[in-house]
């Protein structure tokens, strides 16, 4: 009997141990802010399947980090002008040395390597233009508060001229944290493209309707970045109006302007020129007034507008109103539209994003129809880490999503920039957090990290422009004349 009792006790111990191990294996990765390392007694012998969501495959990592390898140059005697340009481009890259030593380059999937032709032509003639060269940055919380965009704007304006922060929505979730402009407003109700399907939206994805008879918008320039201290043009943009009267008090109350805004059911703007450092718009008879925001800028040099919208995956852009977008483009013609999305798509449970590739492809085509004179640059998803097996590592979804984004760029023949590689590739977010270039959510940048990526993007565009200009000088077959 004693032997039998011992066997029973042993069986109870084994079962208890098994239950405890299973329980520890199923513990969450984080509890009450503390990271918990998963216990897996079979981790040393477990073989993960090729599509395991928590395994970053070597071939996927290589494709994500080393996509800018130099293709073989086409024969010099190619009959096609496009082929001659492509061959010349490959030789220009090769002339810089080994591809692995180059930064993340712009990948151009257009015919004859002309995906940024309009933008580069405008930059080359910026001094002759009777309008600024305009760039629109569309993205999610990764760029909200002007992270990355502010430093990119500063680099562009330092090189090509221009002042001001550009477009500013009537209100924003992060307006108190945005260091590039002071803004406040009252008397408006907010509507978003993400939740509202009734109204017609343009690039900002936000509309503001007057709640009372006297809504207001207050702004003030800042000196946090060079070129923001003052501007020579202030614009109020609106998309519907019946008979609103506007009063603009600016420059510490020294100047006052009044106007009756013209009726519109499309997109219109009121503009005044001079020297401005602050101002307050006040409206009367504002029933039916639907506002977009204000623009603080020069009518020369470069203007970079930030159209960030927290929580946006990018796929909602297929609901941009084509007619109103073209009206906006008449008022504010954009030479380049930058699309930055992905953080709200990547999840740990998904490792195939063909569905997103197909939706993003349709979105890009829709944006091309809305803004037929604009070049488009698609940015890849950035690195993002999760805590796994005792350390923070790149989530495999990043690599899979990046691949789908590149395929969408190729399908639509637009340009593409591998932001994942620009950060340093796999596990680069760990370095960003260590350097305080990113927050401890291992997802979002700090302003210092935004500066790193802004410098990389600016450098990639200027190198691409250098090569494009060389091809233009040599072939002279695809020269674009921007509208002066």
Q: What keyword list fits this structure?
A:
single chain; alpha+beta; globular; 21 strands; 484 residues; six-stranded mixed β-sheet
Helix content: 25-40%
- Low-confidence residue ranges: 29-37, 43-79
What fraction of the residues are assigned to beta strands by DSSP?
15-25%
Content-based structural category: alpha+beta
Radius of gyration: 26 Å
Describe the structure concisely for a colleague.
The chain is 31% helix and 23% strand. It is of the alpha+beta class.
If you had to describe this structure to a student in words, what would you say it looks like?
- The protein is globular, with a radius of gyration of 26 Å.
- With 484 residues, it is of the alpha+beta class.
- Helix 2 packs across helix 8, helix 3 packs across helix 11 and helix 7 packs across helix 8.
- About 10% of the residues have low confidence.
- The longest helix is centred in the C-terminal third of the chain and has 29 residues.
- It has a 6-stranded mixed sheet with strand order 3-21-18-17-4-16, sandwiched between helices.
List the helices and strands and how they pair.
Elements: H1 2-25, E1 30-31, E2 34-35, H2 58-65, H3 81-94, E3 106-108, H4 117-124, E4 133-139, H5 149-160, E5 166-169, E6 182-186, E7 188-192, E8 206-210, E9 216-220, E10 231-240, E11 245-250, E12 255-260, E13 268-276, E14 278-284, E15 290-297, E16 302-308, H6 322-331, E17 336-340, H7 354-370, E18 375-379, E19 385-388, E20 391-394, H8 396-412, E21 415-417, H9 419-423, H10 428-434, H11 447-475
Parallel strand pairs: 4-16, 4-17, 17-18, 18-21
Antiparallel strand pairs: 1-2, 3-21, 5-15, 6-9, 7-8, 8-15, 9-14, 10-13, 10-15, 11-12, 11-14, 19-20
């Amino acid at each position: 009997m004693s032997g039998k009792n011992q066997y029973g006790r042993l069986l109870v111990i084994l079962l208890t141990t098994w239950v405890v191990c299973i329980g520890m294996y199923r513990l969450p990765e984080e509890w009450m802010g503390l990271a918990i390392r998963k216990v897996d007694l079979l981790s040393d012998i477990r073989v993960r399947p090729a599509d395991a969501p928590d395994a970053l495959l070597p071939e996927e990592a290589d494709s994500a980090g080393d996509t800018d390898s130099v293709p073989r140059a086409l024969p010099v005697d190619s009959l096609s002008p496009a082929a001659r340009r492509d061959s010349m481009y490959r030789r220009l890259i090769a002339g810089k040395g080994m591809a692995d030593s180059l930064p993340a380059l712009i990948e151009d999937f257009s015919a004859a390597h002309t995906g940024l032709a309009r933008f580069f032509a405008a930059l080359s003639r910026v001094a002759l233009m009777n309008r600024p060269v305009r760039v629109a940055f569309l993205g999610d919380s990764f760029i909200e508060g002007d992270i990355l965009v502010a430093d990119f704007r500063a680099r562009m304006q330092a090189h090509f001229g221009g002042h001001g922060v550009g477009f500013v929505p009537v209100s924003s979730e992060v307006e108190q944290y945005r260091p590039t402009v002071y803004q406040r407003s009252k008397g408006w109700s907010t509507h978003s493209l993400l939740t509202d399907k009734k109204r017609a939206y343009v690039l900002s994805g936000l509309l503001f309707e007057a709640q009372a008879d006297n809504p207001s918008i207050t702004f003030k320039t800042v000196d946090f970045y060079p070129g923001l201290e003052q501007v020579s043009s202030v614009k109020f943009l609106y998309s519907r109006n019946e008979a609103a009267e506007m009063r603009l008090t600016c420059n510490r109350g020294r100047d006052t302007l009044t106007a009756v805004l013209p009726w519109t059911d499309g997109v219109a703007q009121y503009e005044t020129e001079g020297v401005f450092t602050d101002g307050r718009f006040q409206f009367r008879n504002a029933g039916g007034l639907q506002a977009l925001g204000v623009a603080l800028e020069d009518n020369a040099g470069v203007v970079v507008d930030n159209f960030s919208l927290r929580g946006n995956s990018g796929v909602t852009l297929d609901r941009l109103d084509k007619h109103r977008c073209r009206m906006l483009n008449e008022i504010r013609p954009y030479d380049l539209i930058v699309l930055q999305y992905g953080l709200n798509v990547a999840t740990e449970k998904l490792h195939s994003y063909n569905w997103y590739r197909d939706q993003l492809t349709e979105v890009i085509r829709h944006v091309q129809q809305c803004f037929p004179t604009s070049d488009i640059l698609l940015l890849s998803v950035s690195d993002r880490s999760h805590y796994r097996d005792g350390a923070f590592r790149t989530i495999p979804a990043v690599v899979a999503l990046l691949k789908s984004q590149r395929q969408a760029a190729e399908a639509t023949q637009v340009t593409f920039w591998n932001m994942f590689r620009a950060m340093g590739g796999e596990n680069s977010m760990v370095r960003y957090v260590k350097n305080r270039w990113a927050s401890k959510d291992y997802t979002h940048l700090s302003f210092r990290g935004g500066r790193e990526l802004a410098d990389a993007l600016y450098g990639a565009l200027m190198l691409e422009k250098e090569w494009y200009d060389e091809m233009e000088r040599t072939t002279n077959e695809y020269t674009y004349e921007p509208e002066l």
